[in-house]
Amino acid sequence: MKHRVWLWAALWSGLLLSVPTALAGSSPDGEAIYQKACAACHGPRGTGNPRHDVGFEAPLPDFSNCDFASREPNADWIAVAHEGGPVRAFSPMMPAFGEALSVAELRAAMNHIRSFCTDKSWPRGEFNLPRAQVTTKAFPEDEVVWEMRIPDGEPDAFLNELIYEKRFGARNQLEIAVPVDWRETSDPAADNQWRSGVGDVKLGLKRVLYDDLELGAIVSGIAEVSLPTGDEADGFGAGTTISEISLAYGQILPADSFFQGQLGMEVPANGDKANEEAYLRMAAGRSFFLERWGRPWTPMLELVATRENAPAAETAWDAIPQLQIMLSQRQHVRLNIGWRTALTNDTVRDDQFMVYLLWDWFDGPLTEGW
After folding, report:
1. Beta bridge partner(s), residue 334
2. 107 and 129 share a domain?
3. Cα–Cα distances in angstroms (integers) from residue 314 to residues 225, 318, 339, 363, in the given order
4. Residue of 84, 103, 102, 104 whose CA lies nearest to 94
5. In the predicted model, what is the mean pLDDT of residues 302-323?
6. What is the pLDDT of residues 47-74, one digit of tens each?
7. Which of 176, 249, 243 is CA-nearest to residue 208?
8. What's the number of CA atoms in the CB half-sphere (13 Å) around residue 26?
9. Which whole number is the average pLDDT over 253-263?
10. How far is CA 198 from CA 39, 186, 272, 299, 349, in A?
11. Using alpha carbons only, what angle is made at residue 34 by residues 33 and 38, rounded to the nearest 5 degrees?
12. d(CA 42, CA 63)
């Protein structure tokens, strides 16, 4: 959702003031609502009339611009239309519909506005499902994520990763992930008991291969490469380049529920440094709203299976119960807290405390929207 007050004010104040009661009925006509209430400002095709005609200083948005129109789900647009700008930390100058139009009428108007984006290769924002701790979501995004893992074992460690994601085009995303770790040394004679360093930097490319809003399904292909930038001797890197390919799947389910899955494998350039590994990741959850238009709370359960291609290797299963909390009123800053528990081989693998902080930077600066 673009964070321009006049975007909402121009669209919905026109509706609030101009929709005739004659449009009321059991099957709202979204095109009729738009033409009667919105076209005077936004034009018959949603491209926006000149500023000197409508009296706004800021340019009106172009609803035929798919990069803008496709990013957010209908529910977010309707929330601002129904409750006004403050419900998502926009200006109070954005009026609230209240009971002037029903939610069904707002949906009809939104459906017509969606038709202005004629390039259907852009996946809809409904597919931007809550991010799990490990399973990569299929939707391409503009985000910055800070992750931290704290193993429940010896020696102590704080494992951090800063991830930058940039969407480009209708179906693509670039990613760079930089790990920065603090580890306690196991050598009691060392002068400094703690060491820090940058790990193996990872570069990634994601592309949406399939999406169908009616079926609620999205599939993406992901290719990544980890570069040997970390110090292998201090335990900050694998000492070899590792290539990774995977498929990510997202499924919208009824009652604000969802399922996500990822199937992939890692292949090292030097098999003496690291083993090939295959993995399966699955996450399911549901969003709950304390108020109808409020912030969601999303509990999830994630299952992760990994297996190395090595003699006598066994499949390792982990469970990650977790909770994603929406921090900002604009819903562009989120916190997730989870605990990774080893279900198999638990005598040689530590549990982990896991947390991430996510900033959807396309929706506004980190300092806004609270």
Report:
1. 326, 358
2. no
3. 25, 13, 22, 43
4. 84
5. 94
6. 877 877 766 666 677 889 999 889 889 8
7. 249
8. 0
9. 97
10. 54, 19, 22, 32, 23
11. 120
12. 8
Residue with tokens 């449009």: 23
Kindly tell me the burial class for residue 33, based on how many C-beta atoms sit within 10 Å of its own C-beta (0-12, 13-18, 19 or more).
buried
Answer with the one of 114, 135, 167 that is the final residue of a domain: 114
Q: Position 36: which residue type?
A: K
pLDDT value for 190: 64
Q: Exposed e or buried b for every residue in 274-300, given b needs 16+ CB within 10 A?
A: beebbbbbbbbbbbeeeeeeebbebeb
> CA-based angle 164:169:175, to the nearest 5?
20
Rounded to whole angstroms, how far apart are CA atoms 202 and 198?
Answer: 12
> Is residue 119 included in any domain, yes or no?
no
Identify whether 307 is part of a domain.
yes
101 and 212 housed in the same domain: no
Nearest to 139, CA basis, from 362, 311, 321, 345:
362
Residue 187 shares a structural domain with residue 229? yes
Helix (H, G, I), strand (E, B) or coil at 130: coil
User: Which residue, 176, 182, 175, is CA-closest to 149?
Assistant: 182
In percent, how much of the chain has pLDDT > 90? 60
CA separation for the pair 176, 94 (Å, rounded): 37
pLDDT at residue 146, rounded to an integer = 98
Number of C-alpha atoms within 13 angstroms, CB side, residue 218? 26
Structure-block tokens of residue 341: 């528990």
User: Which amino acid does the sequence have at 105?
Assistant: E
Residue 184 has pLDDT above 80, yes or no: yes
Check whether 291 has a pLDDT greater than 70: yes
Q: How far apart (Å, rounded) are the C-alpha atoms in residues 88 and 76?
A: 9
Show the domain range for 21: 5-114
CB 30 within 8 A of CB 109: yes
Residue type, 213: L
**pLDDT higher at 207 or 30:** 207
HEC per residue, 319-358: EEEEEEEECCCCCCEEEEEEEEEECCCCCCCCCEEEEEEE
